[in-house]
Design goal:
The structure is a single chain. This protein is mostly helical. The chain has 4 helices and 3 strands; from the N terminus they run H-E-E-E-H-H-H. A 3-stranded antiparallel sheet has the order 2-1-3, with helices on one face. A hairpin with a 5-residue loop joins strand 1 and strand 2. Helix 3 runs antiparallel to helix 4. The longest helix has 33 residues.
Length: 168
């Protein structure tokens, strides 16, 4: 009869689990069976058993927090140092206007790109190109890429519109 040796890791895990039991005044014995395998048990009744001498674990409780430190405090407003550079209101308005113009340009470009993609997509039946007439897999891959590009364009447009709707 073929028997497999038990791996060391599960035995170590069992031993660690039994360490907690050892603190509860139980004893652990390591016995060797007829095939030479180690067996862990709580009684040492058979020959070839020896008692494990396990030292109790030392545990230290965490220190208690003072009552004042335990209560949550209201967040203090951020303090800006006096040396922190300030931007004039007119300069900030110009920067905000430029930022808005850039976002609007990006939105227009993305809408144009999406319109071209939808036109090429042709309602799910784009025209076949090159050898796609004979190669259905290549055609289906292109259709899938087109669908992904359309979804990405729609997401980009939604994100740009959200950004433009933020009050500045």
């Amino acid at each position: 009869m073929f028997r497999r040796k038990l791996p060391v890791f599960p035995l170590a895990a069992i031993l660690v689990g039994w360490v907690g039991l050892a603190q509860a005044q139980s004893e652990i014995f390591v016995c060797t069976d007829a095939d030479g395998r180690k067996v862990y048990q709580n009684t040492g009744s058979s020959n070839g058993c020896r008692r494990l001498d396990i030292q109790p674990l030392t545990s230290v409780p965490a220190p208690k927090l003072p009552v004042a430190a335990a209560a949550p405090r209201a967040a203090a407003p951020p303090v800006t140092p006096a040396s922190f550079p300030r931007i004039a209101a007119d300069t900030q308005r110009v920067r905000d206007g430029e930022r808005r113009r850039i976002l609007e340009d990006e939105l227009r470009a993305e809408e144009d790109r999406l319109a071209r993609l939808r036109s090429d997509f042709n309602g799910g039946q784009p025209e076949r190109q090159g050898d796609e007439g004979r190669n259905l897999v290549r055609y289906q891959e292109r259709v899938t890429r087109m669908q992904e590009d359309i979804a990405r364009g729609e997401n980009n447009i939604a994100a740009l519109r959200r950004e433009l709707a933020l009050p500045r």
